[in-house]
Amino acid sequence: MQIIVFAPHPDDDLIGCGGTMARHLQQGHKVSVVYMSSGDAGSLKHGKRKMTQIREEEAQNAADLLGISDLHFFRNPDGYIEFNRDNIIKLVSLIRDIKPDSVYIPHHLDAVRDHVITHELVVEACRRAAGPWFQECEGTPWSVDNILAYEVGTPLQAISCVENISQFIQVKLDALQLHRSQIEAIRYDEAVKALNRFRGIMSGQGDYCECFELIKTRIPYQRN
Fold first, then answer.
1. pLDDT in the model for residue 195
2. What is the CATH number of domain 2-217?
3. What is the signed CA dihedral for 10, 14, 16, 21, rounded to 10 degrees?
């Protein structure tokens, strides 16, 4: 099974679905991560070029910890991700190349604009990737079976799927803590641990859970 996680910025992937990514990997699935921006606006301590370098290195270190080897950095300006032709073409071409069974994206009601645009871009790219159109996009048509939306800073209101990540909560937090440039300013690790604990208690599905909104499904969502 082939998975792509689309993240607006490095660390959004781990916050939203780090435990689920770890479970996919344990089950032998291939996980790719696409960062729409490299988070160059993530600190006032360094210039944008330096922040890009820092955050891409942090993303690589976190991926190495989880066992993910396929990372893609689109390097859109942080805070200015646009729904435009160039991004659509790159995304359609990537989807047709990797041929994912499932993709994960931020949900459409997130308070951060970059997250919303990432959602819109990927949903549209999945639609276009499936059709025999758009000669500027490389590859043969590919239809993604499942599109699931994760929560980052804004909790989901409509939940379709609950994933018990109790077994993977520590590796998720360990990976997230490797994003030191972000954790030193805001303790995202503590925040998401509390959110995952809340989801676990309220769903009754485990000690720690990640929740998703199912945007599209062709087959029953399972990983067996």
1. 98
2. 3.40.50.10320
3. 120
